[in-house]
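Below is how a single chain appears once it has passed through the pipeline. First comes the sequence as given, then the structure the pipeline wrote out for it. We keep one example in the README because the format questions we get most often are answered faster by looking than by reading.
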Amino acid sequence: MGEYARSLAIARAARARWDIAVHFAISRDAPYAADAPFEQTLLPASPTFHSAELIALMEKFRPDVVIFDNAGRTAQLRAAARLGARVVFISARARQRRKAFRWRWMPLIDEHWIAYPQFIAGALRPVERFKLRLIGRPMVRYLDVLIEAADPGLRRAVLARIGCEAGGYALLVPGGGTGHPGVLNAPGEFRAAARSLAAGGLPCIVVGPPAAAAEPGSNLHLPGLLPHAELTELMRGARLVVANGGSTLIQGIACGAACVAVGIAKDQALRVRRCVDAGVAVAAALRAADIAQAARALLAEEPERAALARRAAALGLRDGIQVALEALAGLLGPGAVRA
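Resulting structure:
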């Protein structure tokens, strides 16, 4: 889900700037497949596992730019380059970053976007800098965080619809709809923690499936999955954000929120630890009792909660959408028509 949400945000921004065609190749089993707002080709599973179909799609569509988000195979990248497309590879995990810096991949990639800020993903290593000097490509950029511009009007409308007041609720975001091996219970643990906090009088909003109407007089709100812009505004208005250790955590930090970070996948543990080390989040284990305890402790210590929020705002993370658009402008060239 994280890869799709990131690609979708970039695609929307690119379509808003240029009069371009956008096409997605996604798994037909993905929970978001039915709602994709752009033209799409549905494959039996991840496009990574269906090179023949993906290459046929590229040959038919003849794209100017192909973005491989945290996925892809050598044959797919070679086909895109052979067709004259500019190739972007986004790495969101250490393994994919290593793949992007392989000798056989670097000549095929025009742009390598690292999906997290440098303090989390780490600076370029000596061997990576050596390879870049030797080969002369790709251009490497950190996307930092993909986040919508502030919209106070939208925030008021969303909060009115849900029934909460700005600064008076906790927002819990376990993830976007796909489970992680071994931790398929993550959404349930988040909801159980929210119920515990709500029973103590704190209004709680849990974003993610399933949606359910709040019981009359209840402090627990389950609006289901929300558009990214609405989720961002809920982060900006929250007294506290409890998030998984993926992109959602970085978005909460970029919104200047006091964050409790809960790692729900192997690759998230390092991100959570680096956010804690930077003083912009506190960690909790993936257990409802631990999540609720961490949230209560932070809410009870107003100076610490405020300090977390200040340090988060002081990071000055760059808007990854604008970073991506700047790069795409160079790849598309001066002939790209403004929308």
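Residues 177-182 have pLDDT under 50 and may be disordered.

See the next section for the split statistics.
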